[in-house]
């Protein structure tokens, strides 16, 4: 039953583990569309990463500086393949 603390210090409790994507969708459809990654307790993770325990979570959006870095990094891997 993870308790998630968001950057605005609001808390959300979920019955089951959920991904960053699922959390973004729970917060709102706009955030779900723009989420590209997240941070769990300060560690950057993929948007599909499961949140399984109590933690602080930040959702990284595509239009942020960090979001652009994630997109560029992913594209570099695709081009190198």
Explain this structure to me?
By secondary structure, the protein is α+β, with helices and mostly antiparallel strands. The chain has a single domain (3-80), classed as Roll (Ubiquitin-like (UB roll)). The protein contains three helices and seven strands; from the N terminus they run E-E-E-H-H-E-E-E-E-H. A five-stranded mixed beta sheet has the order 2-1-7-4-5, with helices on both faces. The chain has a two-stranded antiparallel sheet with strand order 3-6. The longest helix is centred in the C-terminal third of the chain and has 16 residues, at 65-80.
What attributes does this structure have?
single chain; 81 residues; alpha+beta; Ubiquitin-like (UB roll); five-stranded mixed sheet; two-stranded antiparallel ribbon; 3 helices; 37% helix; elongated
Layout of helices and strands:
Elements: E1 3-5, E2 11-13, E3 18-19, H1 20-27, H2 29-34, E4 35-40, E5 43-46, E6 50-51, E7 55-61, H3 65-80
Parallel strand pairs: 1-7
Antiparallel strand pairs: 1-2, 3-6, 4-5, 4-7
């Amino acid at each position: 039953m993870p308790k998630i603390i968001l950057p605005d210090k609001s808390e959300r409790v979920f019955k089951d583990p959920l991904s960053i994507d699922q959390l973004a969708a729970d917060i709102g459809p706009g955030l779900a569309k723009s989420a590209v990654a997240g941070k769990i307790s300060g560690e950057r993770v993929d948007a599909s990463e499961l949140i399984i325990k109590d933690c602080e979570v930040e959702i990284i959006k595509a239009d942020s500086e960090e979001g652009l870095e994630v997109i560029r990094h992913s594209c570099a891997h695709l081009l190198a393949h």
